[in-house]
């Protein structure tokens, strides 16, 4: 039986906790043997979403095979959380020193930093707080824009949904990929993403607008980016003329529908190449007739489509 202890900090984000807890709960349902505990410095723990939680204040006895996870909290704005005492930090240090694994979700990486576990290690956190983490812990080797990082039994994730990816990885390491796949299917998680996936996909980067007609077109391109899509068909799907669609699409995304489709194709191709697929095979898989166009687009957009697995960043 593996014990998973969640250290709850005031103003924690519910999904930072619930996602990983659901992974281990589901794994236990399948017979992999997990028992979860929730500890805090005070019994009543307020959350960022307003739902109060209750935890125990005494820590259970932990063995090297057990896990300690620190979910993230509201790191900015009124009512920001993150209050954590030295006694809790010492518990984290002792568990790692005794051969155990410690993990964090989102801003929870700060707790690992304060415990001294990020010094000299690769780590990540949510993109909105990564600059602050780099400033506060200059000896940490921050890796930006990835889902999770593993370094010497210190596991950090970007936050929110990426906490699920991180914990599925931990299940896979302990019980094999088939076990993680079984848990993912039960949770209706489409696919287990690897740690060096970017946090903000091209799809999400260009969705920050309120144009319903453009969203409808993006929905179509997102679903069929590997197909040959004609502007007339896209315009029909959006309910506007081709000229109007091109104008509106450019106003809210800064590009044409074709360029958006190319972004999705290249991003997917980069993922496949990072997993060992040849450039030629990746090009055909995403809808290019051969690799020449893919190579041309990769060369033109090299900064945006950097290969998977970025190097650690130097704090600014």
From TrEMBL:
Source organism: Actinacidiphila oryziradicis
Highest taxon of the lineage: Bacteria
Cited PANTHER family: ARAC-FAMILY TRANSCRIPTIONAL REGULATOR, HTH-TYPE TRANSCRIPTIONAL REGULATOR RV1931C
Protein name per the record: Helix-turn-helix domain-containing protein
SMART domains: HTH_ARAC (SM00342)
MF annotations from Gene Ontology: DNA-binding transcription factor activity; sequence-specific DNA binding
Gene3D superfamilies xrefs: 3.40.50.880, Homeodomain-like
Pfam families with a match to the protein in the record: DJ-1_PfpI (PF01965), HTH_18 (PF12833)
The keyword Transcription belongs to this UniProt entry's keyword annotation: yes
Coiled-coil regions, chain positions: none
Start and end residues of each HTH araC/xylS-type domain: 215-296
InterPro entries membership: Class_I_gatase-like (IPR029062), DJ-1/PfpI (IPR002818), Homeodomain-like_sf (IPR009057), HTH_AraC (IPR018060), INH-QAR (IPR052158)
Keywords for this protein: Transcription, Transcription regulation
């Amino acid at each position: 039986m593996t014990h998973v202890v969640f250290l709850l900090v005031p103003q924690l984000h519910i999904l930072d906790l619930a996602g990983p807890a659901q992974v281990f709960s589901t794994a236990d349902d399948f017979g992999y043997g997990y028992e979860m505990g929730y500890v805090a410095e005070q019994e009543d723990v307020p959350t960022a979403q307003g739902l109060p939680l209750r935890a125990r204040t005494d820590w259970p006895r932990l063995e090297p095979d057990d896990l300690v996870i620190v979910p993230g909290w509201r790191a900015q704005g009124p009512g920001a959380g993150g209050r954590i005492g030295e006694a809790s930090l010492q518990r984290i240090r002792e568990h790692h020193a005794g051969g155990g694994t410690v993990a964090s979700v989102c801003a929870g990486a700060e707790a690992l930093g304060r415990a001294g576990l990020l010094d000299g290690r690769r780590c990540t956190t949510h993109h909105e707080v990564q600059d602050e983490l780099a400033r506060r812990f200059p000896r940490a080797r921050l890796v930006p824009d990835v889902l999770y990082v593993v370094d010497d039994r210190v596991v950090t994730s970007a936050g929110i949904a990426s906490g699920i990816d991180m914990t599925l990885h931990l299940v896979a390491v302990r019980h094999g990929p088939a076990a993680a796949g079984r848990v993912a299917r039960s949770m209706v998680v489409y696919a287990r993403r690897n740690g060096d996936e970017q946090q903000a996909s091209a799809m999400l980067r260009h969705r920050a607008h309120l144009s319903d007609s453009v969203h409808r077109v993006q929905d179509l391109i997102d679903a069929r980016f590997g197909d040959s899509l004609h502007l007339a068909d896209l315009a029909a799907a959006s309910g506007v003329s081709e000229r109007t669609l091109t104008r509106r699409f450019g106003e809210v995304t800064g590009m044409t529908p074709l360029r958006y489709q190319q972004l999705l194709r290249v991003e997917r191709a980069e993922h496949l190449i990072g997993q060992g697929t040849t450039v030629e095979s990746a090009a055909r898989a995403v809808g290019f007739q051969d690799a020449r166009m893919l190579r041309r687009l990769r060369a033109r957009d090299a900064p945006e489509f950097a290969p998977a697995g970025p190097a650690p960043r130097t704090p600014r």
